[in-house]
Write a structure and sequence with these properties.
The chain has 187 residues and is an alpha+beta fold. It has helices spanning 50-73, 77-89, 94-101, 105-117, 139-159, 165-186, and strands at 6-11, 16-21, 92-93, 121-125, 133-137.
């Protein structure tokens, strides 16, 4: 079969670089992994698409937490993310929750309404601007946050248990770069 190209992450504590190795992935007759070698080949393989790979990983990684949230508290993932954002940052407006949780404001609004119906959050007027309100955890909401946050930390630890300490650090650095790139792309 010939030479195969694959990019392999190589990291030091200060940097992350890509090196090319012989590996049977991205088989094509061109230098670009998504460019078909012939006209009958697909234009894109989902396995080569970073957004699709990240979405699939996020879906798989969220399953254990989603089962916990749904099973114990009847929460959606969006409601959990709002609850966690309030638990981490304290009382916020819905706009601030959306910005910090990287969620659409409509999704945040629906999640807040759902959390209110479960008595996990409450809205408090903003005396500086009566058009908006602050959202705060109730006592029940703070208890749910503590319980779920501890379990979420355990799930995260299990997901990264196979990574060495330097690989975990590299993963976080790479994710930060990708997040910045995504924000730049969407600006």
């Amino acid at each position: 079969m010939g030479n195969f190209k694959a990019e392999v992450l190589v990291h030091t504590p200060q940097s992350v670089t890509l090196e090319t190795n012989n590996h049977p992935s991205h088989i094509s007759g061109t230098d670009h992994p998504n460019e078909p070698a012939d006209m009958d080949a697909p234009l894109l393989k989902l396995a080569d698409s970073l957004p699709d790979r990240l979405a699939a990983l996020a879906e798989a990684a969220n399953q254990p937490l989603s089962r916990l949230c749904t099973g114990i508290y009847g929460l959606t993932v969006a409601e959990w993310r709002v609850l966690a954002t309030l638990g981490e940052h304290g009382n916020l407006t819905s706009v601030a929750v959306a910005r910090r949780a990287h969620m659409h404001k409509v999704k945040v609004s629906r999640a807040i309404t759902g959390l209110e119906s479960k008595d996990l959050v409450e809205r408090m007027p903003n005396s500086a601007d009566m058009r908006e309100a602050f959202v705060a955890l109730t006592e029940k909401g703070a208890g749910a946050y503590r319980d779920l946050a501890l379990q979420a930390r355990d799930i995260s630890a299990k997901l990264t248990a196979r990574l060495s300490k330097p690989d975990k650090a590299a993963l976080w650095r790479i994710m930060a770069v990708l997040e910045d790139s995504a924000v730049d792309e969407n600006s």
